[in-house]
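Please decode residue identities from the backbone states below.
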């Protein structure tokens, strides 16, 4: 009888032991991937999960936010070069020992590249390893890396439906989980007076906002072209482009703007840590991503803008299509500056668009809440470890 009691209590205790998850990411220098990781980790049900984070270093403004979350952070390099092969494999053995020392049940990688060294080390350590595919990169020199990364994984989380069709059409260890937005953090608010004063904005000004990593795939030149078309008749428009402008593409955009008649109405803010205040002053948010190149995984800036009560327009590309599914009036053909200019006019100067905006906000709140995203992650973790 004592033996059966021991077996019963053992399995009951096992059932209620928290799942210890190690989230890995190279750094928190850029807030995009790091914020996605932290949002998931923070919103996991702590009755079932014990999240930990591993990253290469403690630099970057967003790392301070990570520290305030009270989630244990381990500073350790969790990926490395695999060439030469023998040296790379030996490093994997060392990394496997480190993973073992943390006594984790599961490793979830938010690494944005095709590294597979971490996956191999986890395999050696006999720790289930999964990753989130966050972008639409796959081919070229990185193809073999993505293939090995996927082969070694226990499971893969994808962020839009095109990823399933293009990269994993016959794979069954796959779950589609859309990005979520913190509805408590991003909501409609009063216009930020500090920004209104800083940029000398008047009540009659109409503010167009674009928040993006300034890369050629983002198509910001198309937005600028549309803006200049409309400005010939609507001089009260202001265009704010928020993103790191310390690169060649950003310099090209600034050159185009500087040589235009309306250069004073186009503001490049550079990299901004707290973007919420920009949503507060915006009348229209635009994401003009092109259909070639990196496209979108699941653009959180679009979710944040909608949740903040800002009208939106976005190009009809991967990731964006999932978010605005069924709301074609908010979409435009990638690279089509003329169509975009027409839709901007309609959005800013025709009041009948407000009912569509309200429907989109409701759609986001019902389907893209960060709590929904975290819950789906939790279900995947339990399934992989066969916990109910």
């Amino acid at each position: 009888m004592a033996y059966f009691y021991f077996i019963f209590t053992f399995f009951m205790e096992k059932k209620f032991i928290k799942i210890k998850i190690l989230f890995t990411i190279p750094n928190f220098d850029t807030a995009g991937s790091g914020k996605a990781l932290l949002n998931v980790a923070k919103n996991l049900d702590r009755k079932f999960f014990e999240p930990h984070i591993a990253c290469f270093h403690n630099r970057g403004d967003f790392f301070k936010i990570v520290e305030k979350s009270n989630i244990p952070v381990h500073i350790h390099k969790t990926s490395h070069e695999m060439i030469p092969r023998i040296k790379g494999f030996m490093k994997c053995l060392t990394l496997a020992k480190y993973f073992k020392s943390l006594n984790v049940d599961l490793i979830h990688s938010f690494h944005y590249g095709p590294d597979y060294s971490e996956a191999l080390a986890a395999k050696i350590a006999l720790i289930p390893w999964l990753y989130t595919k966050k972008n639409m990169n796959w081919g070229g020199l990185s193809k073999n890396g993505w293939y090995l990364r996927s082969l070694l994984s226990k499971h893969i989380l994808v962020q839009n439906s095109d990823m399933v069709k293009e990269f994993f059409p016959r794979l069954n260890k796959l779950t589609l989980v859309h990005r979520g937005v913190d509805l408590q953090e991003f909501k409609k608010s009063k216009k930020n007076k500090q920004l209104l004063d800083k940029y000398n904005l008047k009540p009659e000004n109409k503010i167009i906002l674009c928040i993006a990593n300034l890369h050629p795939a983002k198509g910001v030149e198309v937005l600028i072209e549309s803006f200049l078309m409309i400005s010939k008749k609507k001089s009260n428009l202001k265009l704010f482009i928020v993103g790191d402008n310390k690169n060649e593409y950003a310099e090209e955009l600034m050159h185009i703007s500087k040589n235009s008649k309306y250069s004073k109405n186009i503001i490049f803010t550079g990299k901004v840590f707290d973007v919420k205040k920009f949503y507060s002053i915006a009348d229209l948010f635009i994401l003009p991503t092109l259909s070639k190149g990196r496209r979108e995984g699941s653009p959180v800036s679009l979710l944040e803008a909608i949740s903040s009560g800002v009208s939106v327009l976005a190009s009809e590309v991967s990731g964006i299509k999932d978010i605005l599914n069924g709301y074609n009036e908010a979409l435009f053909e990638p690279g089509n500056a003329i169509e975009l200019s027409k839709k901007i006019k309609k959005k800013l100067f025709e009041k009948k668009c407000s009912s569509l905006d309200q429907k989109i906000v409701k759609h986001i709140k019902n389907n893209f809440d960060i709590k929904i995203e975290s819950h789906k992650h939790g279900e995947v973790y339990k399934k992989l470890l066969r916990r109910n």
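Observation: The chain has a mean pLDDT of 92.
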